[in-house]
Amino acid sequence: MMMNELQIKVAQAVHVLNHDAQSCNRVAANQWLVQFQQNDAAWEVATSLLTSPDRVLPSLPLSFEVEFFAAQILRRKIQNEGYYLQVGAKDALLNALLLAAQRFSLGPPQLLTQICLALSALVLRAVEHKKPIEQLFASLQKLQSQENGNVAVLEMLTVLPEEVAEDQNGDRNIDAASRCQFTRELLSHTSTVLEFLLLQSEQRLDDGIQFRERNRKILRCLLSWVSVFAMMTSLANVWSCDFEQ
Q1: pTM score, whole prediction
Q2: 109 contacts: CB under 8 Å, gap ≥ 6
Q3: Domain count, the chain
Q4: Is Transmembrane among the key words of this record (predicted)?
Q5: In this predicted model, what pLDDT tens digit does every residue of 126-182 receive, in sequence order?
Q6: pLDDT digits over 16-45, tens only?
Q7: Which domain holds residue 77?
Q8: Does residue 180 contact residue 162 with C-beta atoms inside 8 Å?
């Protein structure tokens, strides 16, 4: 089946799953989508759905359900298979997800969050890079210079520490030493993050609702970094006790 045909079939199945009145049709659509996610073609189809400027089915309502599903596919596949991807494939996927983050920087918020979660999962599994966080921050700096890029960067900086904390018992292919090194490297960029948050807080917004929403996001990001720092401190205390014993 051609790539465009697969994209159309995915879009149709997602629409049926979410909107069809017949339960048998919804069950059939769900079964097809579950099987589709297990195929290698799902990588390319999902990536294309997130990065292509043209909608697959313009006749469908602009609800971004298909794009959200594509982001979920990539996150799951990265979590389950990302460790085994070739370096070139990981780099291409990283660039595609950064492009998708910029494309959907103004929403929907849930879609941007899913894209950033997929990005975080991918960086966690980029163990072949000596400093994956440093490379990510260089990419985020470029993203920040693009239109509305600050919004995507803020969301990425929020979910990345959360994903690190939640993934401590995740992929068994990533050993404890690699996770520890990854977290230490992440925390080494704390000053850069704080500077970014300060700059965001100083930007003037005349709209009161936007002002409060922006401050809420900044506070959430700050708390995310505080929690990962607390996690590392707690682990350091545990290791210290183990050595003393």
Answers
A1: 0.88
A2: 155
A3: 1
A4: yes
A5: 766 667 888 889 999 899 888 888 999 999 999 998 887 775 555 566 666 777 777
A6: 999 999 999 999 999 999 999 999 999 999
A7: 3-244
A8: no
